[in-house]
Design a protein that fits this description.
By secondary structure, this protein is of the alpha/beta class. 58% of the residues lie in helices and 8% in strands. A 7-stranded mixed β-sheet has the order 2-1-5-4-3-6-7, with no helix packed on it. Strand 1 and strand 2 form a beta hairpin. The longest helix has 47 residues. It is elongated. The two termini are 54 Å apart. The N terminus and C terminus are likely disordered.
Length: 699
């Protein structure tokens, strides 16, 4: 019942206050005045424990007020501020009821909006409050101030400042809450109408509470003014009254509840505005890439950093900060990744980068690489992430973004949705006008290295037209030993898998078959695309038992499979993954074989004889006696291929492709390279613990 009566009283009070409100539509930017009030109250705030140091502390503190900027505003408002100041002082001396004084002030300020009423009242209070503490700070060193201070009984008050500490703590706390509420009210008024209207629930709810917030704040200001006035008129005896401290604390508690609500609604408003601005910025990006530009600066600024206030890039060659202008009218390769980009990728990319820039015919070609690290805005920035970012940045010889936080939400959304970035690195190529000439050049870089220059989709297509299914396509740029075997026209088994027992059986059988057929055979182990640790152990066994030649550097095995996957994704990117291209069918087969069990490719020199799964290649050699008579007639390669085809036809192999969600462009449908039928689609959850990359780096 009591709470209902209080609500009823509050409603009556607010009805009376709202009835005084008759704004005439004048617009005043009160933010400079609020900043001035903040400056006064901050410098006037008394900390009892450091009273003797206040003068010195305020002398060296920074002056953040632009005095010239206040002149026009104060010309129009100074009279009103003086009137309000006098009214507050007069009512405080007379001990008038706080509500009655507040109503009087609202009548005096009837023609102003709520935010202006509040700031004008605060300015009037700040004048009196500031004068009081100015005297307190300088009276001991200034004779004029000392004389005035004696009239106001300041020396007596300050000499007995110990018991006053709870009073001033409560006063300072209330003033802090008052200023926080004032900032919220001014911020609400200042919200951009372009992005938010009063129809938005958060704003309408907040604005509905503004009259009550302004009323309670003004009541609190009057209580603060009364404290100072009473001190100077009643002296130290007044300080003994504990009821005054309780009143200040009660007002602070009530105002804190109002502040909490306003802040919550204001935060929701800012979130709403942020989303609207992000949508607008995203649309601007979409439109920018549909237009023709004279250079690439508009596009780069929209993508990387729009303002000119800082240098957003680091030059990798000398580690100095630079502006985006260094990229003007150049071909720009945007290396976009998270922090989980591997050292293998970086080392090979750097090698290709250096080869391309040092090539005789390309030195005059203006192109630059820029690393754009993408981190989700929800990720908490930690020392571990900072260390990883700085380690990657310092290792890169090209331009890098100064810090991931410079990337706004709209460009990140654009990069993810339009360029299909999903944590796996991509290299987007922009021409000197900012047009995308290749959505991801990493594939062709891995396949053809610097020969893919200038890294456009047209160049990618032309390279595929020139390419054929041959062993060099798989091992070029990886190992000169194999290229030597190819030139010598030797038979070569390129094989893989992670089952050491199968490897042992395969290599021994292959060696025995080659010896029986009298052919020169070399073998090289290429491992698997995953299970790095198992592959390392397999290489140790192969080397120890001299089963075959094997790449000792795991980076080479990573590069072999990365190139192979790049061939697949390159065709996906060009929209030709299901073309009836024999070369593409063989690449798809090999990727599928890698998913389960062993596999092997047999070539004679450069020409690939067979590309098969371990379940068909090994039995072909085990059954050598069944086809050995065909070797003198048809040759080892053709005899092997024909018998392998017979086994393959009855094997009914299953084909499987795994696409990580970070793969970017994933085909909607895919045809089986064995039977050409459309493959079924499944969702797989996999946990291999291969690399041990921290979760926060995968965001």
């Amino acid at each position: 019942m009591a709470s209902m009566l209080m609500m009823s009283d509050d409603n009556v009070v607010m009805k009376q206050i709202v009835e005084t409100h008759a704004p005439d539509g004048r617009e005043v930017d009160v933010k400079p005045l609020l900043h001035l009030v903040e400056d006064i109250l901050k410098r006037a705030t008394l900390q009892i424990d450091t009273l003797m140091q206040t003068s010195q502390a305020n002398a060296v503190s920074e002056d953040r007020t632009d005095h010239a900027g206040f002149v026009p505003m104060l010309d129009s408002l100074s009279y009103t501020i003086d009137r309000v100041s006098s009214e507050i002082a007069y009512k405080a001396l007379g001990g008038t009821d706080g509500h009655a004084t507040t109503v009087a002030l609202f009548n005096m300020l009837a023609s102003y909006s709520w935010d202006i009423k509040l700031v004008l009242t605060l300015a009037a209070f700040a004048m009196n409050y500031g004068e009081f503490w100015l005297l307190a700070q300088i009276y001991s060193s200034n004779q004029l101030a000392k004389s005035i201070a004696i009239l106001k009984q300041l020396p007596i008050i300050l000499e007995n400042s110990g018991p006053l500490k709870p009073r001033f703590d409560a006063l300072n706390n209330l003033i802090k809450v008052v200023m926080d509420v004032a900032r919220c009210v001014v911020e609400l008024k200042d919200l951009p109408p372009t992005y938010i209207s009063h129809e938005v629930p958060a704003l309408s709810s907040a604005m509905a509470h503004v009259p009550a917030a302004v009323y309670s704040t003004v009541r609190s200001v009057l209580a603060c003014a009364a404290q100072i006035t009473s001190l100077t008129t009643m002296g130290y005896e007044f300080a003994k009254l504990t009821t005054e401290t309780w009143e200040l604390s009660t007002l602070a508690h009530k105002l804190s509840n109002i502040l909490e609500h306003l802040r919550k609604q204001l935060a929701t408003c800012y979130q709403y505005i942020d989303e609207k601005r992000n949508v607008e910025a995203y649309q601007i990006l979409l439109n920018l890439f549909e237009k023709i530009h004279i250079d690439n600066m508009k596009v780069l600024k929209a993508l990387i950093y729009a303002e000119d206030d800082i240098q957003p890039l680091i030059d990798g060659s000398n580690k100095t900060r630079v502006h985006l202008d260094v990229l003007r009218r150049k071909n720009v390769l945007l290396l976009i990744s998270g922090l989980a980009i591997s050292n293998d990728e970086l080392s090979i990319l750097e090698q290709i980068y250096n080869e391309s820039r040092n090539h005789e015919t390309r030195r005059d070609s203006q192109y630059e690489v820029v690393w754009i690290p993408i981190l989700d805005h929800s990720v908490q920035w930690s020392d571990r992430i900072t260390e990883k970012f700085e380690s990657l940045q310092s290792a890169m010889p090209w331009y890098t973004l100064y810090h991931p936080s410079l990337m706004e939400k709209a460009p990140i959304r654009f990069i993810k949705e339009v360029w299909h970035f999903k944590n796996k690195p991509i290299l987007v190529v922009l021409d000197p006008q900012g047009k995308v000439v290749c959505p991801n050049a990493l594939h062709m870089m891995w396949i053809w290295g610097s020969n893919a220059f200038p890294f456009t989709s047209l160049r990618e297509e032309s390279l595929w037209i020139e390419e054929t299914w041959r062993l060099e396509l798989l091992v070029n740029g990886i190992d000169p030993v194999i290229l030597k075997w190819i030139n010598e026209e030797k038979y070569i088994f390129l094989y893989g898998g992670d089952d050491v027992e199968w490897v042992r059986k395969f290599t021994n059988t292959a060696r025995a078959t080659a010896q029986a057929a009298g052919i020169p055979l070399e073998m090289v182990y290429a491992g698997k695309s995953s299970k790095r640790e198992k592959i390392r152990l397999a290489i140790e066994k192969i080397t120890e038992e001299k089963l075959s030649y094997a790449w000792q550097d795991l980076t080479l095995i990573w590069f072999f499979w990365t190139r192979l996957e790049s061939m697949f994704f390159s065709k996906i990117q060009l929209g030709k993954v299901d073309d009836q291209d024999p070369m593409m069918q063989e690449i798809k087969k090999l990727l599928s074989y890698d998913r389960e069990g062993g596999w092997a490719i047999l070539s004679k020199g450069s020409r690939v004889v067979i590309n098969g799964h371990g379940t068909t290649v090994l039995p072909t050699m085990v059954e050598y006696d069944l086809w050995k008579e065909q070797v003198p007639v048809k040759g080892f390669d053709l005899a092997f291929a024909e018998h392998h085809e017979k086994i393959h036809d009855v094997a009914h192999l299953c084909c499987r492709f795994d696409f990580p969600m970070t793969a970017g462009r994933i085909p909607v449908t895919l045809k089986c390279p064995e039977c050409n039928r459309s493959m079924e689609k499944f969702t797989t959850f996999l946990c291999c613990h291969d690399e041990g990359i921290p979760d926060e780096l995968l965001q």
